[in-house]
Write a structure and sequence with these properties.
The protein contains 19 helices and 4 strands. It is mainly α.
Length: 465
């Protein structure tokens, strides 16, 4: 990703665009020789001298595109006079950005698919392991570790679809001239609109796009940046949500992100096992979300056919957006490759809360034995408050179940207590849902089908800092 948004890739992509333009113009009859094309083609790769020439020219001209036109012309003197023929600056700047958006999404999608596959494997491994569910930050009914992971996967699948849609929606700006009317190209082709359209198609095809926008102004609409940025911001929000869940579970000691053998959690508190990966993921996810506002404001504040206040902010926002998203896929991959689950801690926490969760089962069981539902409810209410008093005022364990066992009212169901208190009876269809979601023919394998080759060859992402 760093290479994609590097100064070298940008400059060399501009040179490719100038080559493709010249090749198309030559094909359509403009006086451009084979020698000119050969010189352009042989100088696509920027040399140190080329960068120095471009920097010197930009300092003098205060115009980056013309500085590179001059540098390219110096490297390919035979073609110097036909470089940028009929084009405006946005022919190279905007078309190059569209290439970078497309290729950047192409880098991210297989990485995201790999993360989803790893989380899917994790979900299937723990699909039957009951754990406390939480609503309002308080213990609720049981779920399973695998079912919770599927909630993360479902959001990541939405991100995958968003990024795929954003990539598929991209079109080329093509050759449109200074304000999108193609007037300059009509002039050089003597008013032949068919040739102008043909040139647009040739360059679009050479750039690897299926189609170009029919309508543009000087730039491609900044709505494109907004849409792509929103899709990536949505992914950033997902990363924050997953990271927050892992941090909470680490706080409960139910689950941890990978922790290296020699990793230090705190310079002062040697025992600490801080979830720094997930914390970093939340931090970068937040920044990715915030960056998207730049795209909103840039699009909203464009005047008429174009105003240049879009330029400087896009030069930082677009690369940073993709670098942040790339970093987040690396972090997610690293975390999902080594999630650690502690079943004994999970069971202990279930045991602490299960007595209260089991009360409805106990009431229904008593009704099955012929007792009044209201009478059973009242007995449970009284015993629950007595047990809660012991927990809250005296710091004792929840002894509700012992109180139930010692109450003669519940004698008819005592022999069924172990079955009524089995945690696996409290997880509903969680296991089946995981299987349906991640198994053969499920949503996950269908969504990942096109990425199978990349997933199978992917290696676990490593963190270097």
């Amino acid at each position: 990703m760093k290479k994609l948004f590097s100064a070298r890739r940008r400059a060399e992509t501009w040179r490719l665009l100038w080559l493709w333009l010249a090749e198309g113009e030559k094909e359509l009859g403009l006086p451009i020789s084979d020698k000119m094309i050969d010189q352009l083609r042989s100088h696509i790769t920027m040399t140190i001298h080329d960068f120095e020439v471009a920097a010197s020219e930009e300092k003098k001209r205060l115009h980056d595109v013309m500085a590179h036109v001059h540098a390219f012309g110096e490297a390919a003197p035979e073609a110097a006079g036909i470089i940028h023929w009929g084009a405006t600056s946005c022919y190279v700047t905007d078309n190059a950005d569209l290439i970078f958006l497309r290729d950047g999404l192409g880098i991210l999608l297989p990485k995201l698919a790999t993360v989803i596959q790893k989380l899917s494997d994790f979900a299937r491994k723990y699909k039957d392991l009951p754990c406390l569910g939480y609503t309002h930050g308080q213990p609720a009914q049981l779920v399973t570790v695998g079912k919770r992971a599927c909630s993360w996967i479902q959001n990541l699948l939405m991100d995958l679809r968003n990024l795929e849609r954003a990539k598929e929606d991209l079109r080329f700006r093509g050759v449109k001239g200074t304000v999108g009317t193609q007037a300059s190209f009509l002039q050089i082709f003597g008013g032949d609109y068919a040739k102008v359209e043909n040139l647009d198609e040739i360059v679009t095809r050479k750039a690897g796009f299926d189609s170009a926008f029919t309508i543009s102004s000087q730039t491609y609409t900044r709505k494109i940046d907004l849409d792509v940025g929103h899709a990536l911001a949505s992914f950033g929000a997902t990363c924050q949500q997953i990271g927050g869940d892992i941090r909470h579970l680490a706080m409960f000691k139910e689950m941890e992100e990978p922790f290296a053998k020699d990793q230090i959690g705190s310079s002062a508190m040697a025992y600490k096992r801080n979830p720094m990966r997930s914390e970093r993921m939340c931090s970068l996810g937040r920044e990715l979300c915030n960056l998207s506002l730049n795209n909103v404001n840039t699009f909203a504040n464009q005047w008429l056919e174009r105003s240049l206040d879009d330029s400087a902010v896009r030069r930082t926002t677009l690369p940073e957006t993709f670098l942040l998203a790339d970093a987040l896929t690396i972090l997610l991959d690293n975390i999902c490759s080594g999630l650690v689950v502690y079943p004994a801690v999970i069971q202990r926490r279930i045991d602490e809360e299960l007595p209260l969760m089991a009360t409805e089962n106990l009431i229904m069981a008593m009704v099955d034995k012929g007792a009044s539902r209201q009478e059973a409810h009242e007995h449970i209410r009284v015993l629950s408050h007595e047990a809660a008093d012991q927990v809250k005022n005296y710091g004792k364990d929840n002894d509700l179940l012992e109180r139930v066992k010692n109450d003669p009212f519940f004698e008819p169901i005592l022999k069924d207590m172990s079955k009524l208190l089995d945690p696996t009876t409290f997880i509903g269809a969680a296991s089946q849902q995981v299987e349906k979601f991640t198994g053969d023919g499920g949503e996950v394998p269908l969504a990942l089908q096109r990425y199978r080759a990349q997933i199978s060859s992917a290696e676990a992402a490593e963190l270097h800092v």
